[in-house]
Amino acid sequence: MAATAPLDVVFFELRGLRCALPLGVVRKVLPMRNVTPVPLAPAVVRGIAPVQGFILPVLDLGVCFQPAGDETAESAAYRFPKDKLLLIETAPDAGREAVRVALAVERVVCIGTVDEQHSRVPPPRPSFLSATVLDTSGPALLLDMERTIDYVRNAISAVIGS
């Protein structure tokens, strides 16, 4: 069995959950400013915001971790007082263009390294989780950015199609 290369990740908190993203897709951490809600957008889209010369969708993936049909769940408009934005950019490949979005997070914790031998199968929901990774601070949910973007596209298509 071949050894896998370590993966550098950014650890962050998302509605109280410890999560991680590959460092290669995170371009910058910015303060949350000037987010404009988008009428009729799915809950995962908190709004749009001007970020470094682009108007980007601001995603609140925390709503994806709420139980389905939970009427007491926090609304997508809820804002933690010190929310940050992770500026995310995926590389173009295999006929897919690059994607640039801003991810709303409670706080960025640190940068670390994980490897496959310290990962476990992720929870079954939401579908964009690729693993539960472990480091010295404990477990974190590793997000797959490509599947996350597909999830958001499908949510938007469902709203547009209805």
Name the features:
single chain, 162 residues, mainly beta, OB fold (Dihydrolipoamide Acetyltransferase, E2P), six-stranded mixed sheet, five-stranded mixed sheet, 11 strands, 10% helix, globular
Brief account:
The chain is mainly beta and 162 residues long. The chain is built from one helix and eleven strands.
What does this structure look like?
This protein is mainly β and 162 residues long. The chain has a single domain (8-65, 77-161), classed as Beta Barrel (OB fold (Dihydrolipoamide Acetyltransferase, E2P)), CATH 2.40.50. The chain is built from 1 helix and 11 strands, in the order βββββββββββα. It has one helix at residues 145-161; strands at residues 7-14, 17-22, 26-31, 45-51, 54-59, 84-90, 99-105, 107-114, 119-120, 129-135, 138-143. A hairpin with a 2-residue loop joins strand 10 (129-135) and strand 11 (138-143). The longest helix has 17 residues, at 145-161.
Task: Determine the CATH topology.
Answer: OB fold (Dihydrolipoamide Acetyltransferase, E2P)
Q: What number of structural domains do the residues give? A: 1
Helix content bin:
10-25%
Structural class: mainly beta
Give the SSE order as H and E letters: EEEEEEEEEEEH
Adjacency order of strands in the biggest sheet: 8-1-2-11-10-9
